[in-house]
Amino acid sequence: MRPLRVTAHSVASACGTGVPALSAALREGRSGLRANDFTEAPLATFIGRVPGVEDCALPAQLAEWECRNNRLAWLALGCDGFRERALAARERYGADRVALVLGTSTSSIGATEEAYRRLLPDGRYPEDLRRPIVHTPHSLGDFVRAALELEGVAVTVGTACSSSAKVFAHAERLLRLGIADAAVVGGVDTLCGSVLFGFSSLELVSPEPCRPFDVARRGISIGEAGGFALLERDGEAGPWLLGYGESSDAHHMSSPHPQGLGARLAIEAALGTAGLAPEAVDYINLHARRARRTTRSRRG
Q1: What is the pLDDT of residues 4-35, one digit of tens each?
Q2: Residue 241: which of 292, 165, 188 has the closest Cα?
Q3: Three-state DSSP state, 188
Q4: Residue 168 C-beta-side C-alpha neighbours within 13 Å
Q5: Which of 83, 108, 147, 194 is the one with CA 20 to 30 A from 43?
Q6: Is residue 257's pLDDT more than 60?
């Protein structure tokens, strides 16, 4: 594949808003986890809660999409100068030539949970939550499309943990096929009862901060975050997307193949599309729970 330039990117996480805040936390070995203060019912665990989401009200013209997930998306769009860079790309290429590909697992299901908690005696949603768009998996994509005033292809990818990784592959295909000239990609998921209590019911949630790779680990910690990237064919600065690999070994709904078949196929495909030998890769990021792997390499 022809490499694509990542000309802008942003992030909002439990470690803070903006790339500098996350970089500082990584350098200092500082976690963003805190004792659970999100759920009304007691749940003894630690969570990654993004600071400032509650104070990040949506503009009046976007009030239809009001919910925690879209507030976090708005916060992440405003980090690191990303929104300005995305709007500049819209002006360069045209609103219908910038694609939008976003990943999310639960989208704005938190708003639906609230609607059910506040059901009226006749079974209807409360009036302020009778907004169908926040009760669909595409709420995030529809909101960001409106926020950036884009008119091109808009896709929501929902493949659990891999959602915001797969968006890069999907966007590359759109650019390669000439369907778009640039793409805004990313992912946003927020804390909600469905995820916290769902993983707890599976006995997967740790009562203490998670300890990946530790032989004495006791489970996972659930968090929230949002991030975006702008992909273009050329640009003066930024990392390159050299290749990607996708696979589905159909072994189990949530457990990887015991011999790592799916991971191996994805890695081989990523190396193949990038035209790289294994020894050219200088960094590998391993996701402990799902054994998912991604590769990053320097160009040239």
Answers
A1: 999 999 999 999 999 999 999 999 999 999 99
A2: 165
A3: strand
A4: 22
A5: 108
A6: yes
CA-nearest of 90, 223, 242, 89 to 168 is: 242
Arithmetic mean of pLDDT over the chain = 92
Please choose, from the candidates 215, 291, 219, 198, the residue with its C-alpha nearest in 3D space to the C-alpha of residue 46.
219
The string over 234-270, giving b where at least 16 C-beta atoms fall within 10 Å of a residue's C-beta and e elsewhere, is ebeebbbbbbbbbbeeeeeeeebbeeeebbebbbebb
Q: Which amino acid is at 130?
A: R
Map out the domains of the chain with their CATH numbers: 4-241 (3.40.47.10), 242-300 (no CATH)
Per the CB < 8 A criterion, the answer to whether 54 and 75 are in contact is no
For 27, 108, 131, 190, the CA distances from 125, given in Å and listed in that order, are 46, 15, 9, 22
* Residues written for the chain: 300
